[in-house]
Amino acid sequence: MGWEILWGLILGFTLSAMVDVLVSKAELQRMLPDDSAGSLTRATLVGAASSSCSYAAVAIARSIFRKGADFTAAMAFQFASTNLVIELGVLLVVLMGWSFGAAEFIGGPLMIALLVVMFRLFLRPRMVEEARRQAAKGLRGSMEGHAGMATMAKQGSWRDRLTSAEGWTSISHFFVMNWSMLWKDIAVGLLISGTLGALVPAEFWHAAFFADSPLLSKLWGPVVGPLIALASFTCSIGNVPLAAVLWNGGISFGGVVAFIFGDLIILPILNIYRKYYGLRMAAFLGMTFYLAMVLAAYAVELLFSGLSWVPETRSADVGRAAFSLDYTTVLNVLALVLAGWLYARYRRTGGPEMMRAMEEGDGHEHHEAMQHG
């Protein structure tokens, strides 16, 4: 499966790196002062123009919240940053088909809207103040250095960033940074999906997802999808290979959507919420996020069924291992050439030193120094 999705991964990460360079998040906290429609729209759009790493998204959301951003808007940014990003959409289309890519970009905003409604109904100002005091303690979670790099100021116009040598140096750095954040999740996702696809019989999946009862399957899939994600310990695009196995096994279309959205409630991230915002807010986030995922998945299932957009066959390619000279091979070779060039530029322009500095907590200053040097 890794060979089948390689070119899509490289293309997605390259486009994501270009967007990271073009879109500045340095003043994001100033852009998100409240939970108005304008602030939430900006949070969603800038989040969609960010890295797909769930840990980095959570760290950035805490950072802008500490600097004064509205809590609801920060959570909207966090959701968009993991569920509306380019590389996730590309991978879904490559591995599972256009319907799943469309479901991501339709279901994501719907999930954010549901979350905003629940926050307005149930989130009390006192809880937000408690969370802000906890966030001010600055307890470390994961990917803190990467979050610092993502929120630094950008120099020059967008055209300069995209056409200058310095701009492509930054693109190469973001490209490698994104790979460094996500390669473990991708590898684990491929390992788990390959193991389950090979060892677990189809009868088990059909029984677990009530595949022989269309109505029950549609009701059960969105409920169980995020719970499988919670137990899988993979996040972001690492979930996609396992989503393909679940789809082939009989889970409903809405169940796949809910599973992919479930990366923000895996156990390690729930623990980070506890560190960042306190136990009470972590429990609140876990419950409201889960409900938003389930309800959004139901809505997507109904919409796509009504439009006849749900695939009639379950044929996600999760097991082909034989090498053949076809369009996938050609695209992979071209993608590997591009990745090799970006990695070489990263090595030549101080990228490894920047990465080490980020892990030590001063990557922001180090990257700025290289840009001006």
Describe it:
The chain has 373 residues and is an all-alpha fold. It has one domain (2-308, 324-372). The protein contains 20 helices and no strands. Helix 16 (267-277) crosses helix 17. The termini are far apart.
What proportion of the residues is helical, as a percent range?
over 70%
How many structural domains?
A: 1
Major pleated sheet: none
Large-scale geometry: globular
Q: What is the helix tally?
A: 20
Distance between the termini: 42 Å
Radius of gyration from the CA trace? 20 Å
Q: What is the helix/strand order? A: HHHHHHHHHHHHHHHHHHHH
Number of strands: 0
Q: What percentage of amino acids are in beta strands?
A: under 5%
- Give average pLDDT, whole number: 82
List the uncertain runs.
Answer: 362-373
Concise structural overview:
With 373 residues, this protein is mostly helical. The chain has one domain.
Chart the SSEs and their pairings.
Elements: H1 2-22, H2 28-31, H3 37-48, H4 54-66, H5 71-83, H6 86-96, H7 98-122, H8 125-135, H9 144-150, H10 158-163, H11 165-199, H12 202-208, H13 214-232, H14 239-249, H15 253-261, H16 267-277, H17 279-306, H18 327-348, H19 351-360, H20 363-372
